Known about the structure:
The structure holds 2 protein chains of 2 kinds.
Chain A: E1 11-13, E2 16-18, E3 22-24, H1 40-51, E4 56-63, E5 77-78, H2 85-97, E6 101-106, E7 120-122, E8 136-138, H3 141-160, E9 165-170, H4 175-180, H5 195-198, H6 200-213, E10 219-226, H7 237-250, E11 254-259, H8 279-288, E12 293-295, H9 303-310, E13 316-319, H10 321-325, H11 329-334, H12 349-355, E14 389-393, H13 397-408, E15 412-416, H14 426-429, H15 440-453, E16 456-458, H16 465-469, E17 475-478, E18 483-484, E19 494-496, H17 498-502, E20 511-515, H18 519-531, E21 535-539, H19 551-563, E22 567-569, E23 572-578, E24 581-586, E25 589-594, E26 597-600, E27 603-604, H20 610-616, E28 619-622, H21 632-645
Helix pairs in contact in A: 1-2, 3-6, 6-7, 13-15, 13-21
Chain B: E1 4-5, H1 15-19, E2 25-28, E3 31-34, E4 54-55
Antiparallel strand pairs in B: 1-4, 2-3
Amino acid sequence: MSKYPHIFSPGFIGSLVAKNRVKYAATETNFPFADGYVSDREVAYMEAQALGGAGIVTTQGAYPDPKGEGKGFKGMMAIYNDRFIPGLARIASVIKQHGALSCLQILHCGREGGVDLDYSLMASVVPQKLSYFKTPKEITHEEIQASIKEHTDAARRARDAGFDMIEISGIVGYLISTFISRYTNKRSDGYGGNIRSRCRLMMEIIQGIKAKVGNAMPVGIRLCGLELLDDRGGNTLEESLESFKLAEEAGADYVSVTIGWHESSTSVITRDVPMGHWLYVSKEVKKIVKIPVMMAFRQFLPHIPEKALADDVIDFWEACRPMIADPELPRKASEGREDEIIPCIACNVCFSRLYYHQPIMCSVRPTVGHEGEPEWGYYGFQKTTNPKKIVIIGGGPAGLQCAAVAARKGHQVSLFEKDPGLGGSINLASQIDEGAVELLRPVKTLQKECQNAGVIIQTDVCMTEEQLGSLDYDVLVIATGALTRKFSFDFPGSIYTPGDIIAHKKKPPITSAIIGGNGVGLGVAVFLLRSGDYNLTIIEESGKLGRDVNPFYLWQYVRLLKERGVKIFVRTALKSISANALQLDIRGNNTNIEVDGVIMALQDSHRSWDSFARKHGKEIYYIGDAKQPRRLNNAIHDGYRLGMVIS
Amino acid sequence: MIPIVDRKICVGCGKCVEVCPPQALALIDNSAYLREELCEECGFCAPECSVNAIVIYFPLSKDRS
């Protein structure tokens, strides 16, 4: 019997039955073409989602209008004309072929739309808080009527393409949500006013679609349960809850509860938000509607939705990011293979790709978007006909990922790690802030994958040239991580590395300077500020603090630094040191600061094995921070790509 | 998609270099140079360029062949 009897029991939506309670929720990918057509890449990605075992698989949102006012992403799928039906039908077909219910989402991005235009459309003109969105324009009464028709025509196309169900999205700043929210709806034409009037567009779209596609086809809607816009006059929780009730009244067959707008100044989906935190909102929605209630939002581990289903807090478990990271999540959970689930770490690199007009990628699953390319091995690798002996030095994410892939391809892989445990610098990163411990999850999964693939792992081995010289192998992979740069000044105070502080728990003096303001420097600063009171100064040569930190986390870190009075100097070079005074060149102006300690947060690559490899005639590769100090996603991708190409 | 840097248009302001997470961009001879093997295709660089020297082409369906 499954550990998750509630997740893996059938679920009912309108007249349909889903084989289980998992719904792959709508996720933009930027895999379709810029003109809205479905690509082979999108179809292959969606097929992987369907094969993973979810009961319902939802497409990415498709924009319903020919002008592209609803288009929020360069590679967003379109549904504004019958000519898109054949491509959409390919997606419906692969979903249904693998036993899932197929759901098409219609999405007019509203305030976040008009990606190819110079404006965006919304209920009333309220200036954008986020610079990458377009200048807002108020939608006219006539345009509202046209938009309702565009939504209903889109639904008819979805039905014609063979989809089982339809979903409408009215969240985060998208068109429908700009009407529902008090923050963005100042209208006086019957589509604004009290919550019922603000929900009128939403209700007319649901009614229009139901009338068009018939009652047999379920129609659901995603609505915001909690806008988190109190600082800007957004809806109260009561008003938001009312919107769900009104959706049900308009004929919705299910609702999906979401949290926050993209403009909310609160953490919603980052690691600092405990898993399952937002379920209290769906619990409120469950009390007031009779139709099925669904929710995603930080339910990464299956026991969380299992409990929520058992407690009648949700009826379906929606997953976006966890299933980008592993489409096989439902199957692995049902088979008791939780330790093989590639875990989403909420790094949100997928999200930031979308807003910079790039296809999504995933830190922990390099095969995202390559499911249809056999050489990427999503469905398994073809065994090599030329098995090699590979030695990998370094058991961080790069080394482990390379080992796993190379071994799955049939190579004989030995991996050596100098520390007693695996993970490399992730062991430091996982201690930085609340929730960072989740960063250790992919290390555990990679370790398991290595074990399954037959990699021989030895820890506590600090590899020497002598020992390496005695081993029999063909290929040498260096994944030893970065070197902390030597502090080249004569400084009378103490000098620390990030490892000294985070791994060895050394306490630097209260008044210390951090040299280098990228992710490593910021990480040390955040770690220290969370452990006590410090008077820190960060010195960064470039003009950008946290260049390599995802925007979802950077704003939180910068806010903490500012709250705690950290002095931040960008475009600043350390020129010289005289006693305890650091002499800084700030864009041509000289300043002295006195500190008792210096923390060196600059790193360099670690290419020290070249001459050894040359001498012994070995093929040598560098990956991860040893190649160039970067982030976790680079380490894992380096490892994966090298593992793929060693032949 | 890998950005395409037109070094003839580039004025060497270095803004793209500063925002590049993997440090795949560098100023060489006063214009931006991309080390493609380090590029992680994040797209951060293109919007920083005030002279449109960095282009990231998003394919159309007709490009599929």
